[in-house]
Fold:
Amino acid sequence: MSSDFTVIINEYMPLRELVFTTLRQAILKGEIQPGERLMEIQLAEKMGVSRTPIREAIRKLANEGLVTMIPRKGAIVAGISEKLLMDVLQVRMTLEKMAYECAFKYITDEQIEELKTAEREFETAIRENDLVKIAESDEKFHFIIYDAAQNDKLKEILTNLRENMYRYRMEYAKNRESREKLTREHSALIDTFVRRDSVEGLKIVEEHIHNQETVILEKIKEDAAASQKKTK
Amino acid sequence: MSSDFTVIINEYMPLRELVFTTLRQAILKGEIQPGERLMEIQLAEKMGVSRTPIREAIRKLANEGLVTMIPRKGAIVAGISEKLLMDVLQVRMTLEKMAYECAFKYITDEQIEELKTAEREFETAIRENDLVKIAESDEKFHFIIYDAAQNDKLKEILTNLRENMYRYRMEYAKNRESREKLTREHSALIDTFVRRDSVEGLKIVEEHIHNQETVILEKIKEDAAASQKKTK
DNA sequence: TTGCATTTTTTTTAATACGATATATTAATC
DNA sequence: GATTAATATATCGTATTAAAAAAAATGCAA
Structure:
């Protein structure tokens, strides 16, 4: 059905991983909506594999919280509640600050250069109005900081928290206002590394997350209104 | 058994969950050592089930980081490195502080009472020198705080971080010195809720984690020395 | 039509068997 | 002794089966 089956795989990748990433993408992109059921046989037929890799993929998705499993009934795509999203953002706020502080201690000149490169990419993406590229280069920017923090567990958790909000990451890429904010914040953040001003840096990180919160909350309200209208 | 009819109902538990918890316990208790292989057929025979639930349990363990999976080779029990443990403790330090601050905002009188009860249990366990009970009531104490913080994601992550160090949790239960420290810290912490002194509370949390770090590091060094002696 | 009980279907859960493939070990060859 | 070939072992994936449970369909009486 979808066109991108031309995924070139260098390393050996078990089928379950392939199924996992495929389903994951479908859920995050909204192709499979929250509440929809994931049925083994159906999916197996659709994807041309046996049930075993499907099962294993679904269980992995459940572990990540993307689907909810009901014993002896099956799996449904999990919807994310507003409360949970706020909880996630609150934890992210704390850990992004921690990541910044650690990065501040360890960051090298090369990594600062990498940040600048990522930032240039980001700006190019904005000029070209390439939403996917905007979201990707934003992510790249932050992962450089996570790496600089030199704490694998922190990186792992932050990556996971980001994934929890993957569905909304396009929202600030769409919005002109928040895009400008993002650009400003990114360059200002690089500047704090150069100027060695961590106090200012933490402020920017805080504002950064707070902006995301605003945009996402708006989107949720929008969605809720839309679904209300639909079921009237 | 005859008086309370609500307790008797044992929920349905899939075989994979049973296998999962069994293996998990065995790993955490050290019955299966790091580096040992987990082979599907062997385990299936040993536990009297088929390979299917074994496979699913092993994958779940891999997801938790307790075992490492090597494609087309199998799964081995993961050893935790000193660096990773330090990373975990660093993140825990940040999040335990966050949990304390949130709990400080929302904690109710009833929850403070619960803390006092847990603390009494803890002291009883120490008097009876019951190591398992010591570790359990310590955990209970902290979970009351996590609950009071009213952030599900935070609780989830902290629970997981705790599990990362499950292997070492008995160590401070053994040590007389750290046991006394624990008791003092617990009651002092309760006191900060009552006196509404969050600054002092944060200090105690910080010290609490720091003490654990010391004890665990000592244990690791001990283990390393022992294994060196063994392979001489 | 409505409400209730029964039957059928669907789906997960679990067991089992088999072939293919990758890795490790051992044996053989140079 | 080092390299290569043969063997053994284990995972990976497919396929089939049976049991258990839930959901859907059906039938029937009021």
About this structure: The beta strands of chain B are 37-38, 67-70, 74-77. Chain B has two domains: 15-77, 82-230.
